Amino acid sequence: MLIVKLILSILAIYLIGFAVLKYALPDVRRHVLEKLALSFGLGTGVISLVMVLMFHAKIEVDRTNLFLFFAPVLIGFFYAESKLRLRRNKSKSDVRSSTPFLPKDLNLLEIFLIVIIVARVGLVSFQALYKPMFTYDAMSIWALKAKIFFKEQTIFTDDFYNPDRLHYHPKYPLLMPLVENWIYHCLGSVNDKLVKIIFPLFYISLISIFYTTQRRFFPRQYSLIFTALLATIPAFVRSDKAGAVFSGNADIPLAFFYTTGVINLFCWMKERKREDLFISAIFSGLAIFTKNEGLGLFTVTVFCLSLFILFNSKKGVVRQNIESLSTYIIIPMLIVSPWLLLSMGMPTFVEDENYPGHLTIATVIANIPRTPTILSSFYLEFMDIRRWNIFWILFSVAVIGGFKFVIKSLIKYLFLILILDFCLFVLVYIITPWNVKELISCSITRLVIQITPIAVFIVSKQMRMVLDYRSGRS
């Protein structure tokens, strides 16, 4: 019975997300795998945001109230969708949106790559469901909050507002605990094994977004090669650094939201489709609501988007570019503002956790001697083939060998985003009040995971441009 409830809870996430996708972007035409990934991400975001609004309204977050809110929304959506489909001429339906999961003309290499990807998904899913939460952060930060919400049905408890209680980062963003809380409510009880199903689903969604975006630019076989490269990176399935898919931490969900936001932003730069900008803005906002790093990563993308607009504002499009930049900033702020308002009233249990407070010129200058240790740690991390195979070596070769293509194409903005993300991580290690060696040893892999899909995307674009150049194509 628990398995049935679990399936229904996951199905509800997809349906809620799909309804939001259709409401927000009724004319969006995407590959079925991309629609599923976007629906899952939107579903988790909407569910968690509704819970935050229920906190504000002093409404108990229990199964009955959640059902009373979402049931009419879904019923109304499916009623409207059914009427629309009856009126729609099937001959005008989009071919790409109805593309089957497995086309009939697959060659042996493509079949092999698909088997590799599916096998990795199966391994990750088994690892996730085989044992309950076991890493410190997963239990003490995300899962503990979810259990408090399930028990108390509100955020206004001593667990969040009494400074004498156990410290577990009360001001951390709440998307993951609230999604776990959703699963608990649907199951009717706390289950530390079954709740972890959401993490393989984030991983699958990440792979789906990556593949379908590749297909917008490249042939199927080429797209599958780099999707398999991303899916088989060992860091996703290794538990020694607690960043793996099945660990119960928020790094893979953050990687999914951030990658979706950045890649769709790149697509907007290239094709100027308004739907890409909206998707990028929404998922950037959800990245901020997933983890603190999301705000820093969002700041980086805003800066790079501003540069793009500055150097691409030809006569007649200045106003349009300013509106696009405003949209990209306003939507994420609207998404996270309900949570920010709640968190402002919470005490800071440990002053050392106030990273913005440590971001001063004096702190940076005083901790400059840490830089060699930090940079050498990143170098050793990138060269660790046990966690990354030879990917980061391949990345270096692709960027250095085809740097002229980076400069001449829009990929330079993705490359700049990646470089600034790296600088952001270095800055965090410089200003942290903790022992930097200890902090690096337990967090560096998790940080690198968050930006790795974007790096793989850059490599695929670079190699394709080189191949096209050598074959004589522009």
Describe, in plain words, how this protein is organized in 3D:
The chain has 474 residues and is mainly α. It contains 21 helices and no strands. The protein has helices at 2-24, 32-56, 63-87, 108-130, 136-152, 158-161, 175-187, 198-217, 220-231, 251-271, 274-288, 293-311, 318-343, 355-358, 361-366, 371-382, 385-388, 391-401, 403-408, 411-431, 436-470. α1 (2-24) packs across α2 (32-56), α1 packs across α3 (63-87) and α9 (220-231) runs antiparallel to α21. The radius of gyration is 22 Å and the shape is globular. The N and C termini lie far apart (58 Å).
Order of helices and strands: HHHHHHHHHHHHHHHHHHHHH
- The helix tally amounts to 21
Shape: globular
Distance between the termini: 58 Å
Strand content: under 5%
What characterizes the major β-sheet? none
Helix content: over 70%
Rounded mean pLDDT is 87
Radius of gyration: 22 Å
- What class do helices, strands and sheet pairing give? mainly alpha
State the total count of DSSP E strands: 0
The stretches of 5 or more residues where confidence is low (pLDDT under 50) are 90-100
Give the gist of this structure:
The chain has helices at residues 2-24, 32-56, 63-87, 108-130, 136-152, 158-161, 175-187, 198-217, 220-231, 251-271, 274-288, 293-311, 318-343, 355-358, 361-366, 371-382, 385-388, 391-401, 403-408, 411-431, 436-470. It is mainly alpha-helical.
